[in-house]
Amino acid sequence: MNEQKLRELLPEVSTPSYIFDLDLFNKRAELVHKYFGEKVGMCFSIKANPFLLGKLPDCFSKIEVCSPGELTICEKTGVDMKKIIFSGVNKTYDDVERAADDGVGTFTAESRLHVDLINDAAIRRGKVFPVLVRVTDVKGGSQFGMDEADVLDIIENRADYKGIEIVGIHYFTGTQKRKAKPIIRELDYIADLLKRLKDDYGFTAERVEYGTGLAVDYFADNADELEEERLSEISEKIRETAELCELTVEMGRFFAAPCGYYLTKVMDVKTNQGINYAVVDGGMNQLKYDGQLQGMQIPKIIQLKKNNTPDDVQPWTLCGSLCTTADVLTRGVELNSLEIGDVLVFCRTGAYSSMEGMAVFLSREMPVISEYSEKDGLTILRDKLYTDVFNTPKR
What we know:
Elements: H1 3-9, E1 17-21, H2 22-36, E2 41-45, E3 60-65, H3 68-77, E4 84-86, H4 93-102, E5 106-109, H5 112-125, E6 129-134, H6 148-156, E7 164-172, H7 180-201, E8 207-211, H8 223-241, E9 246-251, H9 253-256, E10 260-272, E11 275-280, E12 301-304, E13 313-319, E14 328-336, E15 343-347, H10 353-356, E16 368-373, E17 377-382
Parallel strand pairs: 1-16, 2-3, 2-9, 3-4, 4-5, 5-6, 6-7, 7-8, 8-9, 11-13
Antiparallel strand pairs: 1-10, 10-11, 10-15, 12-15, 13-14, 16-17
Helix pairs in contact: 2-8, 4-5, 7-8
């Protein structure tokens, strides 16, 4: 989305707000599909941006859901429940029961408890549920998944679980991987694990859900080029793995990051101790870039000027509306004749940014959320939400 289009849309939205460009999101999905090929399924992890779910491109065969709230969003948007992989480390019995009644396509099991819960819910319904067992990171482990030894034991004793069919493996170790080497190493591990499962346990894994954790560049001028290079570097190995089983690649950030724009208005300007400060009506409670620390990095920012003033390019420190010195969005960004009323558009905010901020700090409003496409124009998905609403006990 260019500056002209943003100016055209500005009268239709207030600030602070997010606009998600569906055309750009679709283009990104098509790029990944081109590199990975027809045999590789694509899964969108909606924790990255649930607002994109309503018009998900057809190339996504799976949707990863990790909480009851995300399941509610799927119910409200009317997605095909068979596409859902119901994941997440904290599954209660009620969560599993609800997902089962919704008819989700696949469950993941992050622990022995999950295996038991899913198995019991299936038996109670006289059904058999497909399950992917998650293996923890073999290079260090985390709270996610299970040790390989536990996974092997569950698979060895799979006949004991009458309510589940273990259809394969789930493997995801982390995000923002900038090099191909660790991803290729993980895919080699998966291939070795599949072979051992077949040779030692007579188990053929039909499916693998693999999260690449492919990195997004938020502060590089040539971000699109760098990210496409990463796709190219792992594509051959991805295609090779897809020959071993039904492979689904799960990503959220890499699909969605480029399609987001965060709009915030300049509310005040001043110069303190020789530094130009601008206070905007948004802040770190609503805007978050992975890798940003105390505003030291400069993302791409489009300045939509309110007035036609003479050129005067100066460095500015952009601060939000929170009462904390930590609320610095960026430092030293060069802007032209910045003044009260200008709107600043922070680019590449399509993934996580709208979901990860300290939303209720200082009881500030939550931003407007919109989507845009050339075909349908601008659609408001959510108006401003106010966080100061609660029941006050009477004295």
